[in-house]
Amino acid sequence: MKYLEAKEGSIFFIPLFLPNGIKENLKGYGRYKFEEKGPYAFGRLIEDGKSLGHLIEIFNYVGAIPNEYSVIIDSGRMFAPVHTTMGFQKKRYRFIFESMAYDKEIDSNYKEIGFRLANEIWKGGNVIKNYSKEDWKKYDDSILYPPTQLENKIREHIDMKVDLKESEIM
């Protein structure tokens, strides 16, 4: 399998089968050969690492690496975009699809992505210092997720969806 370079709009996989201890965040996976069967979660790089880390979105599709990236994108977002670090540098996450026509405003609704930062709100690449209480409540605190913490967040979300489906059956 050929891996691609990090570019905004590129799709990457997140192995959900790797160990998730805190020390695993520092382990390099450059020589590791990932199989296509997974299970993997998939994300898209919205903005390449600035001071807040890499801004990414995670999609609902979980499983083997599909032949077409549209399977991933069409599944919708799993949760609001987050910032992550170390997953790309340590080659734990690898880029597998490139989107030549990616536009973060159109494809990821960039201007509506927001986070609380101390006494400010980061929204769509801008820092807002004067905001209302309602604006403050709209956003979550900015958290920089290391790989194992992001993978746990995904696993928890998947478990919640499974529990929901089971409870709907009863």
How would you explain this protein's 3D organization?
With 170 residues, the protein is an alpha+beta fold. Strand 2 (40-50) and strand 3 form a beta hairpin. It has one domain (11-169). It contains 4 helices and 9 strands. The relative contact order is 0.21.
DSSP helical segment count: 4
Number of domains: 1
Report how far apart the termini are.
42 Å
Q: Reading side by side through the largest sheet, how are the strands ordered?
A: 5-1-2-3-4-9
Structural class: alpha+beta
* Overall pLDDT metric: 90
Give the overall form.
globular
Rg? 16 Å
Largest sheet: 6 strands, mixed
Q: Work out the helicity level.
A: 10-25%
DSSP strand tally: 9
Order of helices and strands: EEEHEEHEEEHEH
- Strand percentage lies at 25-35%
Q: What are the segments in which pLDDT stays under 50 over at least 5 consecutive residues?
A: 164-170
Write the layout of secondary structure elements.
Elements lengths: L10 E5 L24 E11 L2 E11 L6 H4 L8 E3 L9 E4 L6 H4 L6 E4 L2 E4 L2 E3 L4 H6 L5 E2 L1 H23 L1
Parallel strand pairs: 4-9
Antiparallel strand pairs: 1-2, 1-5, 2-3, 3-4, 6-7, 7-8
Q: How do you describe this structure in short?
A:
This protein has 170 residues and is an alpha+beta fold. Helix content is 22%, strand content 28%.
Summarize this structure as a short list of keywords or feature phrases.
single chain; 170 residues; alpha+beta; six-stranded mixed β-sheet; three-stranded antiparallel β-sheet; 4 helices; 9 strands; globular; disordered C terminus
